[in-house]
Design brief:
Number of domains: 1
Low-confidence stretches: none
Strand content: under 5%
Shape: globular
Helix content: 40-55%
Largest sheet: none
Order of helices and strands: HH
Mean pLDDT: 85
Number of strands: 0
Number of helices: 2
């Protein structure tokens, strides 16, 4: 998976979307044909994750992968 993320980053860059707890963030963009969709905070054990936490967790993981 790390190699896939690195390849996508090198080809076109990455877009990070952080959505609401009820989901459906991709449907709001009107395009459901995304080549790679990842959940960086699965099974967090709470009903939702604050934006600040989601951003920090996601960027930390991406930074580790892309170094």
């Amino acid at each position: 998976m790390k190699n896939i993320i690195r390849d996508k980053y090198e080809e076109n860059g990455l877009t990070l979307l952080i959505g609401p707890p009820e989901g459906k963030v991709l449907e709001r963009f009107g395009n459901n044909s995304h080549p790679l969709i990842l959940n960086f905070v699965p099974k967090q054990g709470v009903s939702n994750v604050r934006v600040e936490e989601a951003l920090s967790a996601s960027l930390s993981i991406l930074n580790m992968i892309l170094e």
